[in-house]
Specification:
Number of domains: 2
Helix content: 40-55%
Structural class: mainly alpha
Oligomer: single chain
CATH topology of the largest domain: Rossmann fold
CATH class of the largest domain: Alpha Beta
Bound molecules: adenosine-5'-triphosphate, L-tryptophanamide
Number of helices: 13
Strand order of the largest sheet: 1-2-3
């Protein structure tokens, strides 16, 4: 037995992965993978809630897995797998549905945002956080490293796990959200008041996609919305959120402190210099990932093999937990 902390996190194959996914999630997953027991999941069942085209979903699932490996997820250190390959995820969702009050789900801000203005809202969109709770608690995860936007869902997973434990007796570990101090909320370059998001990555100037060409990255940063001033410093002022976002990106990538970052721009002649410097560090960070990604995508058979090994490892943990759940709930095990 080891006393390594267990980490679980997931990402949806719902579009082109963007810089916020990388800085808010993937980079931290990679940095800490040697210290922990890790499960990273491409959550294709969650992506169904945004009803992508079936062919796109298949392609995006492989592409996202390749990006994660290319970002440094090591299949010998971590278990990386596709959610639908381990059927315990969908099954645990049903079991947990039966202990989750519907009001808890209706309160979720992501549900409110994503359903707003939609004529038809699927049950899947409402149930999304229950599937996510199952993902986490099937592995006895202690830590869930996510961006700021997912904190509420992890808190709900805690509530669901605690409720199950109360009703049926202790079974689940209560997980903790782990949010990076900087990088936890990368904002859109076209509008620094909304979070950068995969689903908007087709909007010109919104996101830096992880596979963008260097000149596209450069252009997107040069066009980034800032303010009419010229002061380059960290600030909570909404007016300065564009500059703050650029400084935050620079900070996470260089690993420098806020004062070191501000010092780097002491002699800058304006926001143009800042944008150029941020573009440069981002291009340097993403270029090797893109190269590795292309290598992995050139051998899809090997990629699928790695994912199969991941799914087998994940299943060996998730299935016994699912059986315990069923037993506690009074189902006869077959
Ligand atoms: P979608 O637009 O389809 O909801 P997304 O870009 O928000 O996608 P997810 O798959 O929902 O990405 O999230 C994967 C991980 O990336 C999560 O941990 C999430 O918190 C994190 N993340 C997403 N966007 C950002 C962002 N702008 N800043 C920091 N972290 C982010
Ligand atoms: N809802 C998450 C993705 C996700 C997840 C998880 C994250 C699904 N299952 C379990 C952490 C743990 C999102 O980022 N949109």
């Amino acid at each position: 037995m080891t006393d390594k902390k267990i980490v679980f996190s997931g990402v949806q194959p719902s579009g082109d992965p963007q810089l916020g996914n990388y800085l808010g999630a993937f980079k931290g997953w990679v940095q800490r993978q040697t210290e922990k027991t890790n499960y990273f999941c491409v959550v294709d069942l969650h992506a169904l809630t945004v009803t992508p085209d079936p062919e796109d979903l298949r392609t995006q699932t492989r592409e996202l897995a390749a990006i994660l490996f290319a970002s440094g997820i090591d299949p010998y250190q971590s278990t990386l797998f596709v959610q639908s390959h381990v059927t315990a995820h969908a099954e645990s969702c049903w079991l947990l549905n039966c202990v989750t009050p519907i009001g808890w789900l209706e309160r979720m801000t992501q549900f409110k945002d994503k359903s707003q203005g939609q004529e038809r809202v699927s049950t899947g969109l409402l149930d999304y956080p229950v599937l996510m709770a199952g993902d986490i608690i099937l592995y006895d995860a202690n830590e869930v490293p996510v961006g700021e936007d997912q904190k509420q869902h992890v808190e709900l997973a805690r509530d669901i796990a605690a409720r199950f434990n109360r009703i049926y007796g202790d079974l689940f570990v209560i997980p903790e959200p782990v949010i990076p101090e900087t990088g936890g909320r990368v904002m859109g370059l076209n509008d620094p008041t909304i979070k950068m998001s995969k689903s908007y990555s087709h909007i010109r100037g919104h996101a830096i996609r992880m596979l963008d060409e260097p000149d596209e990255i450069q252009r997107s940063f040069m066009r980034a919305v800032t303010d009419s001033g010229n002061e380059i410093r960290f600030s909570d002022d909404v007016e300065k959120s564009g500059v703050n976002n650029l400084l935050g990106i620079y900070k996470v990538i260089t690993g420098k402190s806020e004062s070191e970052v501000e010092k780097d721009f002491e002699d800058a002649r304006g926001y143009g210099d800042l944008k150029k410097a941020v573009a440069e560090v981002v291009i340097d960070e993403l270029s090797p990932i893109k190269e590795k990604y292309q290598e992995l995508m050139s051998d899809v058979v090997e990629l699928d093999r790695l994912l199969k090994v991941g799914a087998e490892q994940a299943e060996s943990v998730a299935l016994p937990k699912l059986s315990q759940m069923k037993e506690k709930m009074g189902l006869i095990l077959s």
